[in-house]
Design brief:
The protein starts with a strand and ends with a helix. The protein has 99 residues and is an alpha+beta fold. It has five helices and four strands.
């Protein structure tokens, strides 16, 4: 499975699309597809870092069909409120189709 949050985190940190694709073993077209949405929303590499949780929230909104609910977990904070943390992943067998 491909972690879309990891793709966006690497790109946002300043790695170009080809480097992200090569280092994560993902097709460049797949990387470009997910980065395009971030760029369309005004995100640019090198700007203030976003937490993995924030990227996860954004990706969930942009691509709700890709949220792997089996990887969600709930965490309690000091105030006993609950937050969800879900991995946003693309099954590798779909990555070629999703380009």
């Amino acid at each position: 499975m491909i972690d879309i949050v990891e793709i966006l985190t690497h790109w946002h940190a300043g790695r170009n699309k080809a480097e992200v694709a090569r280092s994560l073993g993902v097709d460049r077209g797949t990387v470009a597809k997910y980065i395009a949405k971030a760029e369309a929303e005004g995100y640019v590499p090198g700007s203030e870092p976003l937490s993995p949780e924030r990227w996860s929230t954004l990706v969930h909104g942009w691509f709700p069909e890709l949220v792997d609910l089996s990887r969600c977990r709930h965490r309690s904070t000091m105030t006993s409120s609950k937050r969800s943390s879900c991995s946003i992943v693309l099954p590798t067998e779909l990555s070629a189709v999703a380009r």
